[in-house]
Amino acid sequence: MKGKIVIDKQLCKGCKYCVMSCPKGVIAIEKQFNKMGYFTAHPEHMGKCTGCALCAQMCPELAIEVWAENSRKKKA
Ligand code: SF4
Ligand code: SF4
Which of these, 21, 24, 62, 65, has the minimum number of CB atoms within 10 Å of its CB? Predict the structure, then answer.
């Protein structure tokens, strides 16, 4: 199953919970900070995403949307 995530840069606080929770190593932290001063997360290896939604479940800011390709439905 292929998945896709969308991270809201305005909500992300750079806590890295999503990075640590992803079993596929999809997510990385930006090297430059945003306007708010946070080093935000981004899906560096989107092709590995399975749509499991673990990252979204761990995110305290509700900044991650997860989509599963086979269902064409938003999972989280
Ligand atoms: S949905 Fe699963 S595989 Fe995809 S980025 Fe999140 S934790 Fe990783
Ligand atoms: S868990 Fe949420 S707030 Fe924390 S780095 Fe990931 S997207 Fe940003």
Answer: 62
Read off the pTM.
0.91
Q: Are the C-beta atoms of residues 5 and 47 closer than 8 Å to each other? A: no
Rounded to 5 degrees, φ, ψ at 30 are -60, 150
Tell me if 13 sits within 8 A of 38, measured CB to CB: yes
Ligand nearest to the CA of 55: 1
Domain boundaries, the chain: 3-74
Pocket of ligand 2 from Cβ distances under 6 Å = 7, 12-18, 40-41, 58-59, 61, 63-64
* Sign of the dihedral defined by the CA atoms of residues 8, 60, 22, 31, in that order: positive
Q: Please identify, in words, the CATH class of the domain defined by 3-74.
A: alpha beta
